[in-house]
Amino acid sequence: MYPRTAPHTHGLLTASDGQSISWEEAGTPDGVPAVYLHGGPGGGLGQGGYVTKFDPDRYRIIGLDQRGCGRSVPLAHDPAHDLDANTTPRLIADLEELRTHLGIAAWVVNGVSWGSTLAIAYAQAHPDRTLGIVLFAVTTTSRAEVDWITEGVGRVFPEEWERYAAFAASHDPAYRRRESRLVEAYARLLRDPATREDASQAWARWEDVHVSIGAGGFQPDPRWADDDYRHAFTVLTSHYWAHDGFTVPPLLEQMDRIAHIPAALIHGRRDISGPVHTAWELHRRWPASRLVIDEGDGHGGDGMVAEWVRANDQLAARWASDRRK
């Protein structure tokens, strides 16, 4: 990885609907523009470790906290936040408003986990603004993927899934175990201030469980101790997953729009939360893509990170070569 460099510019962009989006910029102003899309939904930029995946001498690195999380305001669980207006098309509009605000004609798009869904959706909407794509822990947030991560993985962790489902069954009268969608029950419980705290704790535990195989065992994420982080993350994740990522039609059905855009798809073989099948199907429908499967990693890991850095280096070299022509 490259050295961690602090942002040299940052701001709070007021979007056209009045929500405020926090953004920051690092690297060289004359470099190839690149935007980083974090996971979750609702994960935020955190401590800014994403910048280490880009050569700061070759990239103009842009990061943003997607609306409703991180340093963007208001947060998703704040009564002032219009959660119904928080959708994938709206996130794409935010990206376009930020791109225009920064005077960027086109950029390389990096997406991690949920961010890879957003990256694909953005590129499909604006292929002329996308120089290249790097996806890490690849998802498309289809209904099948959402049902797997909230229901199907229970076959691997049956005792933990029973605990996860039992909370919803005891707090949401509309939920019927294995008859209705568990994710929809949690979306309702997490919108309600009366049940949000306990529901967020139950959701957070399930998150730690289903990533545990590729992470070397169960390890509670220390970020959950921050109530604002946990509430924003769980409210946004359940909201997006309950609506199958707001991607209609499904992203896999629209791959012809970006078939020509160079891309690296990086995934871990041991990713139980998001099996490699999704990355494989994307690659099959994406002629300009390169699929890298790390045999030892899960939903992230050192081997995958090395490939992430390598993919960005390759795109920077390609951009420099094109400029010389």
Description of the structure:
The protein has 9 helices and 8 strands. With 325 residues, the protein is an alpha/beta fold. It folds into 2 domains: 9-143 and 246-324, 3-Layer(aba) Sandwich (Rossmann fold); 144-243, no CATH class. Strands 1-2-4-3-5-6-7-8 form an 8-stranded mixed sheet, with helices on both faces. The longest helix has 23 residues, at 302-324. It is globular.
SSE topology sketch:
Layout: E1 9-14, E2 20-27, E3 32-37, E4 59-64, H1 88-101, E5 107-112, H2 114-125, E6 130-136, H3 143-150, H4 158-171, H5 182-191, H6 196-210, H7 227-242, E7 263-268, H8 277-284, E8 289-294, H9 302-324
Parallel strand pairs: 3-4, 3-5, 5-6, 6-7, 7-8
Antiparallel strand pairs: 1-2, 2-4
Helix pairs in contact: 1-2, 4-5, 4-6, 5-6, 5-7, 6-7
Question: Kindly, what is the distance between the CA atoms of the first and last residues, rounded to a whole number of angstroms?
Answer: 29 Å
CATH topology of the largest domain: Rossmann fold
The CATH superfamily of the largest domain is identified as Alpha/Beta hydrolase fold, catalytic domain
**Count of helical segments?**
9
Largest sheet: 8 strands, mixed
**Low-pLDDT stretches:** none
Shape verdict: globular
CATH architecture annotation of the largest domain: 3-Layer(aba) Sandwich
Order of helices and strands: EEEEHEHEHHHHHEHEH
Provide the residue-averaged pLDDT. Answer: 96
**How many discrete domains?**
2
Give the strand content: 15-25%
Using DSSP, what is the number of strands? Answer: 8
What CATH first level of the largest domain would be assigned? Alpha Beta
* Helix fraction bin: 25-40%
